[in-house]
Amino acid sequence: MLALERKNRILEKLHANGRVYVGELAREFAVSEETIRRDLEKLDKEGIATKSYGGAVFNENAGIDLPFNVRQKHNVAGKQRIAALATELISDGDHLFLDASSTAVYIAKAIKEKKNLTVITNSIEILIELSDVSDWNIISSGGQLREGYLALMGAGAISRLSDFQVEKAFVSCKALSLENGIMEGNEEIALTKQVMMDHAVKTYLTADSSKFGKYALSRVCALNRVSGIITDERPSDAWTDYFGRNGMELYCP
Q: Does domain 3-60 match CATH 2.170.16.10?
């Protein structure tokens, strides 16, 4: 097993369980405990985990960007619920932006029965997922591929996305708060989402319950900039009151 593959597997376990143990990882990956300690030291330096006696604990910092394959496996049931709700908002013939979030991949899977859609995306995973749909128009943003993200970003992606105008954009986020609005892990991702929102008649924020009340590095926009919020659990009264005051629709199970 390559070191990068082992690192991603350790990340999956940290994200799912909150902590890992050196002895268990050494046995599972058939490497020495010293090798695992070095792996955990690197994750500690990156701010993803905090080393502890005999293992490491996941750093619940919303500003940390995890690889796509780790994010995709987090809260799968919640993302599927969000995708089912998003499907109800999409009509045959719609033109859509789907961002490069793991939630958007589940939306792409859920809407395959729709007819004659145009989907514009910067997600490599979504392009692959929709490659067998025959009557749709699937458009790539172009741009630079960022390691670990399966996403196309940069000036090329932003320029290409700006060429389009769609009815609906579905974007996710790293975090959202009533005070600071919608946030992402870095400026490049935030800019890509901003241009999608600027060129859509309606924007729907797809955010599972773990994102509420959290903070991240780069602000995308004010919360009331979006038309509606799609989430997997009903949020508290403070959130629903805010949505009501600002004319935002809430979609939840």
A: no
Structural contact between residues 199 and 157, judged by C-beta atoms closer than 8 angstroms? no
Q: Which residues contact 50 (CB under 8 A, 6 or more apart)?
A: 44, 56, 57, 59
Query: What is the domain partition of the chain in residue ranges?
Result: 3-60, 69-251
Q: Is the dihedral of CA 196, 202, 203, 206 positive or negative?
A: negative
The β-bridge partners of 184 are 218
Q: What is the pTM of this model?
A: 0.79
Residues 6+ apart with CB under 8 A from 211: 62, 173, 174, 175, 176
Q: Report d(CA 23, CA 12) in Å as an integer.
A: 17
Report the largest interatomic distance among the alpha carbons of the chain, rounded to a whole angstrom.
57
C-alpha torsion angle, residues 196, 202, 203, 204 (rounded to 10): -150
Report the alpha-carbon distance of residue 77 to residue 130 in Å, rounded.
21
Tens of pLDDT, residues 77-128? 899 999 999 999 999 999 999 999 989 999 999 999 999 999 999 999 999 9
